[in-house]
Structure formats: structure tokens, C-alpha cells
Amino acid sequence: MGCSAVRDVIFVTFYFCWVQWERLLSRVEVLSLELNKPDLWDDPVRAGKISREHGSLMGRMKEVKAFERELLEHIDMLKLAQEENDQELETDSLMALLRMRRIVKEKELEALLSGEHDPCSCFIEVQAGAGGTESNDWASIVMLMYKSWAQRRGYGVTVVDEMPGEVAGIKRATIKVDGEYAFGYAKAEVGVHRLVRISPFDSGKRRHTSFAAVAVIPILGEGFSHVQINESDLKIERTRAGGAGGQHVNTTESAVRITHIPTGITAQCQNERSQHQNKSSAMAVLQSRLDQLEMTRLAQMNAQHTQSLTDISWGTQIRSYVLHPYRMVKDLRTNYEVSDPDSVLEGDLDDFILSYLSASLDKDEEN
Q: Which InterPro entries match (predicted)?
């Protein structure tokens, strides 16, 4: 490894230490002021939260100091090895610096996924835009893309609800994605996805533009739900499950649709084996939607942004997938693009997601 690579290792590592240190100092200073307020423990819940965060950050400060000491030791050893022409020591020192650079990259990723709900599993919902069969087919392609992406990452994928189109594709569908940081990654996909292609449904082989909207909802879990659901506020409808599935699916009322009367929010499930399981899955979706609605309301009160279904409109295009007259996928928020749409539609989304998360982190730092 040449001198330029060594400088790169040192620069990136020092940059990480400095940026982390500045952030930690700033936050610890704010928390220290809060801890010194005489009325802090008038609100024990808030006080406990502040105290725990302060203790956690103090621990992270120790980690950064230890990281910096180790870095300087390896730099000194590298200088000594070069002065004494000790190839073995130089190699060991460079390997140690490369290991530290890998740690830096891991820490950078942790910084990208530092949101309160980022560690949660999530629901991904896809809804076809106007355009009938064209958009229904595009929506099904988008949903398959997310299933493939989730499976690539080792996440569990369960189809919760699916409404097929009259001719092809889907009008809407919801999947549950189980895994650590599923929401943290998938939240980058919220918005409208636009497809340009020669239509396989047009006998004239004309070019068509189709749209599909994507929503991502965190699954907060029992201990984190914001909204208490009262049974008296629910309207529960049981219907026959549609689609293929044999005699049992088509003759029993196993599908469940639940409406939360005060808000009008609905959830349904028809893909489980029994009515009880469908009801349980529909309730999980409903709980997450109500939690998200409450988080949106609280965020609006504090003039903060949140990812939610209410943020989706047909004007919020985030990505274009062009298959004709050229081939390209481009994220309109970051300008990141690739010339291989097939790999993207097969679930290769991580570069788009990380590009967006990095840009979001940089924007937060500017503000």
C-alpha cells in the first residue's frame, strides 16, 4: 500500500474522531446543563431519560479517546518502521490502520441509522398510481423489488395483504419486513417511483409512464405503541379471501378487514391460514398505522419531518426507472444513478439507500 493510501487511512480515521468528538461534546454539554437544573427530578421519567443518555454518551467519549490513542500509536509505529526499514513492522502497522478504517466505516453506518425507530422492523406498502393495468403491473414489479432486497439482507418477508389488479399486477400490497434496522434502511424508499418503458400491454408498442407510491411504517412493538386501541372503536368485517388458493380459500370467510372508526384508518389481511391469524396480522398493521399517524401529528407540532403515509403525494417523485429509449435508474433527491436497471429491480438497492441516508445526515449537520 502506497503513501497516498496511508494518508487516506489517517485522514478518514482522524476525520471520524474529530466529527464524533464534536458531536459528543455538543450533546454532552446540553445534557450536563439539564442535569444541573434543580427542578430536573420533578419529572422523573424525563430525568431518567436524560441521565441515561448522558451516561451513554460519556461511555462513547471514552471509546473515542481510546480509538484516538490507538490510532496515534499505530502512526508512531509506522513512522518507526519506515525509519528503520522494518518491513514486518510496517506491514503490521498498515494492517492495523486498515482495520481501524473498517471500524470507521461501521461507525459511519451507525451514524446514518441513529433515528429513534431505525432499529425496528417495518411494513412496506406499495400502491399503484393512476393508469390501470400499466401502473398495476409496475406496482407489482416494485413490490417484488422490495421482497428481493429484504431477502438479500437476510430479513424475514411476509405478505400481509395484496389486492390484485383486474388484468395484471396489483392495486396495492403490504409486506412485513422482519429484521434489525429494516425501517432504518427502508425509510429511504418512501415516495413515488416512476417507470418509463415500452408497454407490454400496448399492441402499438408505445412508450408509457407509470407511477407507484411506497410507504414505510415502523413496527414499534408492544412497549412503544403510542395509541391505545379500544375494541369499541373497531369495525371488523370478515369476507372470503380472493385469488388463488384452492377450495378452502374461496369458500370460507377467512379474510379480515378492520376499520378504526374515529380515524377511518383501515387494515386488512387475507394471506394467513385462519381468520384468527388474519385478524392478528391486520391488527398489527392497524396499530402501526395509528402509531405513525400519532408520530406525524407530534412531529408537525414540533415542525419536524417524519416518514409517513400522509407524506406521500403523486408530486413527490423520488426515483425514475427508465427502460426506453435509454436504460438508467436515477434518484432525484441525490442524483445518484446507475445504468443497470435490471440489477436494481432485482433488489440491488443498498447503494441508493446509503446515498440517500448519507445525504440526509449531511443535511442534518448543516441545519
A: PCRF, Pep_chain_release_fac_I, Pep_chain_release_fac_I_sf, PrfB
Q: How far apart are CA 127 and CA 172, in angstroms?
A: 4
- Choosing from 59, 92, 112, the residue where a domain stops is 112
Asked whether residue 128 falls in the same domain as residue 107, the answer is no
The CA distances from residue 48 to 41, 45, 119, 163, in Å, are: 8, 5, 22, 46
Cross-strand pairs, 196? 209, 322
> Taking Cα atoms as reference points, which of 319, 346, 357, 362 lies closest to residue 184?
357
Query: Could you tell me if 80 and 154 lie in one domain?
Result: no
Angle CA(327)–CA(331)–CA(337) in degrees, nearest 5?
45
| Bond prior to 341 in cis (omega within 30° of 0) | no
Digit-coded pLDDT (tens) for 202-235: 888 889 999 999 999 888 865 565 678 888 898 9
Q: Is 146 exposed, middle or buried (0-12, 13-18, 19+ CB in 10 A)?
A: buried
- Does the residue 118 lie in any domain? no
Domain boundary among 112, 135, 165: 112
Residues 6 or more apart whose CB falls under 8 angstroms from that of 176 comprise: 121, 122, 123, 156, 157, 158, 160, 219, 281, 284
Of 343, 229, 12, nearest to 352 by C-alpha is: 343
- Amino acid letter, 218: P
- On whether residue 202 sits in a domain, the answer given is yes
User: Which structural domain, as residue segments, surrounds residue 180?
Assistant: 123-367
Domains held by the chain: number: 2
Q: Where are the alpha helices (DSSP H) in the chain?
A: 3-35, 44-83, 87-112, 133-152, 182-186, 247-251, 275-301, 341-345, 350-366
Cα dihedral sign, 42-37-54-180: positive
Full-model pTM: 0.66
Confirm if 306 and 299 have CB atoms less than 8 A apart.
yes
